[in-house]
Amino acid sequence: MNQQYSPSQYRPVDEGKPGRFGEPAKFLPVAFVCCTISSLYLVYVIFHCIPMLQFATDLDHRDDARRSRGIVQIIIFHITTAMLLLCYVKCILEHPGEIPDHDPHWHYEGAQQSKMGATTGMDLKETKKSGERRHCKWCGKYKPDRCHHCRVCRTCILKMDHHCPWIYNCVGFRNYKFFFLLLFYCVLTLQTMIWTMAESVLRSWDVDTPFVVMFFVLFGETLAIFLGFLLTAFFGFHIWLMLQAMTTIEFCEKKMPKKQPAEGSVDTISAYSLGCYGNVCAVLGKNPLTWFIPISPHGYGDDGLQYPTSYDDAFLQGRQYEPGRGRKKKGHQSTQRLSNSSEKLFYGT
């Protein structure tokens, strides 16, 4: 039965909407990825690493240089594989972020109230051509900047990049770092396999090599080269997006706000760009020591509803903010002062 909604109320969740993992069929891509990872792991360890370690060879006939290479390779491979699996699990389990349910700033108030500034003091940059605030007709809420509705997840996703069936999740504000690191460790693992297994491929051409060994070595090397090429190119694309302060949706739609160009020049830089280093911090976190560790990059005040548009002196000088500074409580809601909203939402600790 269809429910009726008044303009002043945000739309409740559909009664028939499945839970977070309520559609088992959508786990098939995840199962395929797990099988692929397991296959490559077994091929590399059984048909490359173990022969390199020469357990069945007498000490007098053992190639110590080859064994040393095998020990180094198996250690590096297991480290990158472990990080890959950890990032993959985090990508699946971490919700990308959605619009708050009980925040009156995002309740859809109807077209007559949707002009910028009519019902909110937030400095939103993305609006309709008419100047009205963007809203989602399915969720019944106003949309923050960089927010888009995912019809697969059936909800609005904060800073949505894309929906990825391989992780049964959207890639957005809270799990983009995990997705980025997943690509990074996938590329490292595959490149390790490609270049180190070349030695085993050459050895497999020996006339005394069993057919089964030759088949699996060539299969593993071929699959690693194919996936390595694709994921390396895809990872390079996301590095470029990160440096440009863009998401995949913003790149495809080319409708994101731009910085005001200087007189007589054409500026196509994203309004959310904080410079090369700042854009990296926006994705991986402000502490370089944790960039390659799959922990959340977001600190106090980061909610994915507003985004800074420039550096401020506080960040450059390493200023620290006391919890609660710049906020005013109103019941169970808290609103942030516009004067320091951008610096706290991105740099606050």
Q: Can you count the beta strands?
A: 8
N-to-C SSE string, H for helix and E for strand: HHEEEEEEHHHHHEEH
Query: Which regions are unreliable across 5 or more consecutive residues at pLDDT < 50?
Result: 1-16, 116-120, 313-349
Distance N terminus to C terminus? 47 Å
Specify the structural class.
mainly alpha
The largest beta-sheet arranges its strands as 1-2
Gyration radius, rounded = 25 Å
User: How much is the average pLDDT?
Assistant: 79
Biggest sheet overview: 2 strands, antiparallel
How much helix, percentage-wise, in residues?
40-55%
The coarse silhouette is elongated
Q: What is the overall number of helices?
A: 8
Strand percentage? 5-15%
Note down, in words, how this protein is organized.
Among the domains are: 22-94 and 176-252; 257-347, no CATH class. It contains 8 helices and 8 strands. It has helices at 28-53, 64-93, 176-204, 211-243, 248-253, 275-284, 313-316, 341-347, and strands at residues 135-136, 141-142, 148-150, 155-157, 162-164, 169-171, 327-330, 333-336. The chain has a two-stranded antiparallel ribbon with strand order 1-2. It has a two-stranded antiparallel ribbon with strand order 3-4. Strand 3 and strand 4 (155-157) form a beta hairpin. Helix 2 (64-93) runs antiparallel to helix 3 (176-204) and helix 3 runs antiparallel to helix 4. The chain is elongated. Residues 1-16, 116-120 and 313-349 have low confidence and may be disordered.
